[in-house]
Amino acid sequence: MDTLLLNSDAVDENARMDAIIRSVEEAFGAYQRGDVQMPAKSYIELERYNGDFRSMPAYMDAGDWDAAGIKWVNVHPDNPADHGLPTVMGTMIYSDPETAYPLSVMDGTTLTMKRTGAAAAVATDHLAVEDATTLGIVGAGVQSYTQLTAIAEVRPIETVVVADKDSDRIDAFRDEFGDRFTVREGSISDAAACDVLSTVTPVRDPIVSLSDLGEHTHVNAMGADAEGKHELSDEILLSSKLVIDDHEQCTHSGEINVPWHDGTLGDDDLYGEIGEIVVGEKEGRTAEDGVTVFDSTGLAIQDVAAARVVYEEATDGDEGTPFDLVQA
Asked: What is the mean pLDDT of residues 195-220?
């Protein structure tokens, strides 16, 4: 029995966005039903190298969704300038729960981008207005690409407004999507006024205010993944229908972490977790809702669910590189 090695191109080719969205939605539901084991994300701080490691293990035991794995990921901001390497790199090990055999070792960076976009799509599907045709994106980095690709699967997006300090990144985004969508550069306020807004920046001082948003804008707050990061004003968080992916992770390192630790925000200000909406325990968007917000930190079960899709697609298509990792 071989382990399947899947590089970034192989992951990309076998991660059909519609299938990844369905898998991530199933993962949120399984989490809410208690059909998963997911220890808290652990961190190893590397002050000497201005970076960190994060380990994210999970097991889903939800009928056909019997899957296990772990993602090992880093954040090293100095990598691009000092070493010619990406800031973030990830490796996913996808295992057979019955035997623990490592079925696949795959690129976790591309997998993360896909499942993060899919998480935003799941939230958008439940929380955005049905006829949303405009998408604003703040931050035109690599994650912005899968935000559009995924959200366009669940809403009839026609126009995309992109805000970024780097005009070259906006030009690259336009080159990628200009033949399928009307893509234009705009201010943060222009982007925030759209039907749906995704923020994908690493800022620590809020850059989006309540006055920027449309009356019924749905916001996917995707950028905060560490303590101190904060993209949306406290006024937005306090006045919106606020949905999180996981209480422990969001209060530690999600969009709500700063006002939470300051005592500005508390449990009474949270509408619920996305899993509660997915399984029908709480309503998604209603006719009375104004601004809605999804605080996404990224869960290990999303990686495992997405890895399952990629592995099965690659196996069915006889793709990837098999190698003899474990000798019985």
From this structure: 97
**pTM of the shown model:** 0.95
Does 158 share its domain with 213? yes
For residues 147-162, give the mean pLDDT: 98
pLDDT-based confidence at residue 10 (cuts at 50, 70, 90): very high
Which residue do the tokens 């422990």 mark?
A: 248
Q: How far apart are CA 274 and CA 53, in angstroms?
A: 27
Domain range for residue 19?
A: 3-111+301-323
- The question of whether 71 is a catalytic residue gets the answer yes
Residues 91-116 have a mean pLDDT of: 97
> What confidence score (pLDDT) does residue 187 get?
98
Residue found by looking up tokens 């190698």 in the block = 323
List 102's β-bridge partners, or say none. Answer: 95
Question: Are residues 148 and 229 both part of a single domain?
Answer: yes
Question: What is the Cα gyration radius of the chain?
Answer: 19
Compute the distance between CA of residue 294 and CA of residue 290 in angstroms, rounded to an integer: 13
Q: What is the CA angle 168-171-175, rounded to 5?
A: 140
Q: Residue 61 domain-assigned?
A: yes
Of the residues 71, 114, 229, 241, only one is catalytic, namely 71
Residues 313 and 230 in one domain: no
Is 328 within the bounds of a domain? no
With cut-offs at 50, 70 and 90, classify the pLDDT of residue 226: confident
Please state the φ and ψ torsions of residue 269, each to the nearest 5 degrees.
-90, -5
38 and 187 within one domain? no
